[in-house]
Amino acid sequence: MLKESDDLSWYARKAARACGPVPGAEPEPGQVERLQALLELLRKAGVKGDAKSMTLFTRRLPPGCKPCLAGQGTNLYVTGLCTRDCFFCFNQKPRKDELVVHGIPVKDPEEAPAIVERFGLRSVGLSGGEPLMFPERVLRLIAALRAMGKPPRIDLYTNGDRADESMLRRLKDAGLDSIRFDVAARDFDLTPVALALTIFDEVAVEVPVVPEQLPQLKTMCLELDLLGVPFLNIHELFICAENEIRVAAEGGRAKAGGESKHLLWRPTAKSLESCLELLLFAQEKCRTLSVYLCSCGTQENISKRGYLRRKRAPLVVE
Ligand code: SF4
After folding, report:
1. How does pLDDT run across 170-187, given as a tens digit for each residue?
2. What is the pLDDT of residues 189-215, one digit of tens each?
3. N or C: which end of the chain has fewer CB within 10 A?
4. What is the DSSP letter of 185?
5. What is the best residue among 159, 233, 242 to mutate for testing ligand 1's pocket, by most ligand atoms within 8 Å of CB?
């Protein structure tokens, strides 16, 4: 049986305040047909993946996403504090400085490896908030994970505000595998991404697809391709208790029927169509950039796989 201190119950505790009855928007006239047409165009253009769960990609999957898709990935929440205040941010408010490993709050970075080992996790995403507000904490986490007998892959998610050259070099020297930038947090400024490319072999960008930003997102795809960035991850703009007022103020409505047993968030009604348009654009216009859609359907499957794995090997509470 799942106990108080595993990650599902942590999410569930958050869910207790997250799951309000959010009214959903039905598809607008013609949207279902447009989605079908886009999927057909994507199929003809050679997009890969699974259309049923909307797990689609143009060239190849980022290496860090493979263990995650198998339910063997986890999120290591370095802090809830951030240098930005994005309208789409789904982090808990008021923001709190807490370190949470696979849903388990801990005091010290050195407690992370035991949790990663206990759950057989093979891929760790250091995220937040903005993890680089606490660089020493991040470096201690990387050192502790790297010292494991069978270290997991480590990716860092950042908005780039604190990613100067010296910080990037320290992260690389500590053993970080890859760095992912949310450039939507910085109005699509790619300066830290270009800098990271001179230091890391693997650099990625990850952004929510806000339908009104589709022209900027297309321009960003072309710029990333020119820079030689290998991976762009996109996801639907989603809505949850923490962002619903601000997303609604920007015109976003939850998709009707988008509720999930496993996720605390729901996709907005128009974002998937924009995601498919962006995938098609990248498939046709980019030479080397791989674009991967990690949709809410994908995230639901990841969550289910993680749940089944934990059910097979329930947490033993000491
Ligand atoms: S940069 Fe990320 S964590 Fe910070 S406010 Fe924006 S979405 Fe939230």
Report:
1. 999 999 999 999 999 999
2. 999 999 999 999 999 999 999 999 999
3. C
4. G
5. 159
